[in-house]
Design the sequence.
């Protein structure tokens, strides 16, 4: 395959302290014949990530490693890698995840798209030892296209529903489309940077194809970075939604969906800010925060109630099954096209 051809793929891996997993991620990318570049950005790691990445080199000349001495965040790391690459297609791979062999043969079968994503299998960290990709179910592709309202609505988490936000998707993106619309990752974001980019792409008219075939393995960890975000990260994500709304490109259902997402994230921010203020200033200071910010009151009350209810059910669950066996494999999509 000729570097820079229409079906050449650059795989970008932003990594921080991923020495234990980066080798497997790189190996899964280098196995794909469509991949002409693998660019690892070591984003200020303090462990052996750089050395582990170099050890995974297969000698084909496709692997490049960029190192930052200071952590700049995944959005900056990915933008740097995009600027350093030349392939026509950009594919993101998280440093603790992996591709299912043959991923790009399925994903690139139909070329009439600007972004194309496939199904994700979520693998509990406890199941990784001895995990065999042959255990991953095969689904018929059933290609369909995402519209903006559906994508945004499926990124609003709801209590009692297993997490399956479409922001988890790791699509292949056409460089030409990104360049034509001036799209890159928002470097203010350390949470939801994928959601933000895909939403702006859809607002710009992107044809976003998804298929049921499973080509991406996401490792579920109790200490994942997304579970340890700062309170201000929520504010930045809500502000990013606000910026999209202010851009004037949206109308109708799309605009309403982004507005609902902004309110959802803003409510989570107020809840977290209330808890932070309580920890620093006590309950009086936390209540004063609500009085100074009347829109915070409803999400704070709802969040506190939900936290207590969730805590109760977690205690009950542990008493019922203290062993807590690793969960079975689950998928972002079922084997049927989810028209809803």
Sequence:
């Amino acid at each position: 395959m000729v570097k820079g051809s229409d079906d050449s793929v650059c795989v970008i891996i932003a990594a921080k302290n991923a020495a234990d997993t980066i080798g497997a991620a790189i190996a899964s990318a280098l196995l794909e014949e469509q991949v002409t570049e693998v660019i690892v950005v070591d984003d200020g790691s303090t462990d052996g990530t750089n050395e582990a990445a170099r050890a995974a080199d297969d000698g084909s000349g496709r692997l490049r490693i960029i190192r930052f001495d200071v952590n700049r965040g995944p959005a900056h790391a990915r933008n740097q890698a995009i600027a350093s690459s030349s392939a026509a297609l950009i594919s993101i791979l998280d440093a603790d995840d992996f591709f299912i062999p043959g991923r790009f043969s399925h994903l690139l079968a139909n070329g009439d798209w600007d972004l194309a994503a496939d199904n994700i299998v979520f693998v509990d960290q406890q199941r990784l030892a001895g995990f065999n990709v042959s255990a991953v179910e095969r689904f018929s592709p059933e290609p369909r296209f995402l519209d903006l309202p559906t994508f945004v609505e499926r990124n609003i988490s709801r209590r009692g529903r297993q997490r399956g936000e479409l922001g988890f998707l790791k699509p292949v993106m056409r460089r030409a489309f990104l360049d034509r619309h001036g799209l890159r990752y928002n470097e203010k974001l350390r949470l939801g940077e994928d959601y933000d980019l895909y939403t702006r792409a859809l607002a710009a008219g992107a044809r976003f194809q998804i298929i049921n075939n499973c080509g991406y393995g996401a490792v579920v960890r109790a200490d994942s970075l997304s579970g340890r975000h700062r309170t201000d990260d929520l504010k930045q994500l809500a502000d990013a939604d606000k910026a999209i709304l202010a851009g004037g490109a949206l109308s109708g259902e799309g605009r309403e969906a982004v507005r609902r997402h902004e309110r959802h994230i803003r409510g989570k921010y107020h809840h977290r800010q209330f808890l932070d203020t309580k920890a620093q200033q006590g309950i009086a200071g936390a209540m004063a925060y609500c009085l100074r910010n009347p829109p915070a009151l409803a999400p704070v009350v709802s969040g506190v109630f939900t936290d207590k209810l969730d805590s109760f059910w977690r205690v009950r669950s542990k008493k019922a099954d203290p062993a807590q066996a690793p969960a079975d494999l689950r998928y972002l999509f079922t084997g049927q096209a989810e028209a809803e």
